[in-house]
Each structure stands twice: as structure tokens, then as C-alpha cells.
């Protein structure tokens, strides 16, 4: 079954990388929006 395990890894690894990437991107954009909102409130 090594081929099946390798195929599973080939599918799962990019998927996990994509999830991690989009989560960090989402958190970053949320932080950016909060900063922009604070700037708008102060001005």
C-alpha cells in the first residue's frame, strides 16, 4: 500500500498548505481592516 499512501500525501499536503495559506491571508486582511477602521475613527 505504499503507492496509496504516497498518493494520499500528494493530495493532502497541498490541501493543508492551501488551508494554512488562506487562514493566514484571512487573519492578515482582518487585521488590516481593523487598522483602517481605527484610522477612520481617529480622523
Our estimate of the beta-strand percent is under 5%
- Gross morphology is rod-shaped
What is the CA-CA span between the terminal residues? 63 Å
Give the biggest beta sheet: none
Describe the structure concisely for a colleague:
The chain has one helix spanning 2-42. The chain has 43 residues and is mainly alpha-helical.
Plain-language structure description:
The chain is rod-shaped and about 65 Å long. The chain contains one helix and no strands. The protein is an all-alpha fold and 43 residues long.
Describe how the helices and strands are arranged:
Elements: H1 2-42
Keywords:
mainly alpha, 1 helix, rod-shaped, 43 residues
Amino acid at each position: 500500500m505504499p503507492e496509496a499512501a504516497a498518493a494520499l500525501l500528494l493530495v493532502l499536503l497541498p490541501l493543508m498548505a492551501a488551508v494554512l495559506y488562506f487562514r493566514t491571508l484571512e487573519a492578515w486582511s482582518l487585521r488590516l481592516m481593523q487598522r483602517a477602521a481605527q484610522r477612520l475613527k481617529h480622523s
